[in-house]
């Protein structure tokens, strides 16, 4: 069985630098004007360099890799997401939300009022909003559980799968820049709340993060994918991860963050990523490593 020293995860050495390099190249070659292009290129180049440095440090001191790899990879993926507003929608300036709204209504028959108006309740609004903003907590719990079990191989492989999955989502955001329904659709009634939902919602929308991150639904794709990873490797967490994934999917629609087509594509992308990641990285359930 490979030891900690022999394991070589790829998030820091390949996935993050390659994605950052791709963004820099696209902005350099873009025919459309990119606002603050020099700032954006420096930002993403810096994140790519930081990833390489973190990998070199982990390689130099391999016993620290079990801490450096997941923590640095998680911090970098969040930093990339927070910087996407520098690239989206400048690379593909045309916004697509009206097309998606039309598809929802014409082909899927989806109207928020017909699906959710009867469930509009303060407890549901506040609870789902709290769940929605807890999105990045659950990958942390997943990694913490693997570390507690000293399943380093699972921790490295799981981190790589999650990081590459997030980066695929970000590619979708760049290809189909789309605002969320709450930003432009007029609804017949507001979400009822005891006060928590609007506070948490405002905290999200007032950040400098991109507001064109709707297609596909990353919350849907990655929460369901994480629940699947948990079922494969840390089944004792499934009683948390599976309900969390289901309620996250509900929250994306109920809270008006996503169109129905976003969620359906997110589910389809998740299924495709499960199939592809099992072939890229090997079977997650059977992948064994050092537990010492």
Any chance you could write out the topology, listing elements then pairs?
Elements: H1 11-29, H2 37-60, H3 65-83, H4 97-107, H5 112-116, H6 122-133, H7 137-148, H8 152-175, H9 196-205, H10 218-233, H11 238-254, H12 260-281
Description:
With 292 residues, the chain is an all-alpha fold. It has one domain (11-281). The chain is 65% helix and 0% strand. It is built from twelve helices and no strands. The chain has helices at 11-29, 37-60, 65-83, 97-107, 112-116, 122-133, 137-148, 152-175, 196-205, 218-233, 238-254, 260-281. Helix 1 (11-29) packs antiparallel against helix 2 (37-60), helix 6 (122-133) packs across helix 11 and helix 7 (137-148) packs antiparallel against helix 8. The chain is globular and about 60 Å long. Mean pLDDT is 92; it is low at 1-6.
How would you summarize this macromolecular structure in one to three sentences?
This protein has helices at residues 11-29, 37-60, 65-83, 97-107, 112-116, 122-133, 137-148, 152-175, 196-205, 218-233, 238-254, 260-281.
Supply Rg.
20 Å
Mean pLDDT: 92
The sequence of SSEs as H and E is HHHHHHHHHHHH
Low-confidence parts, pLDDT < 50 over ≥5 residues? Answer: 1-6
Span between termini? 11 Å
* Protein structure class: mainly alpha
Share of β-strand residues: under 5%
Could you say how many structural domains there are in total?
1
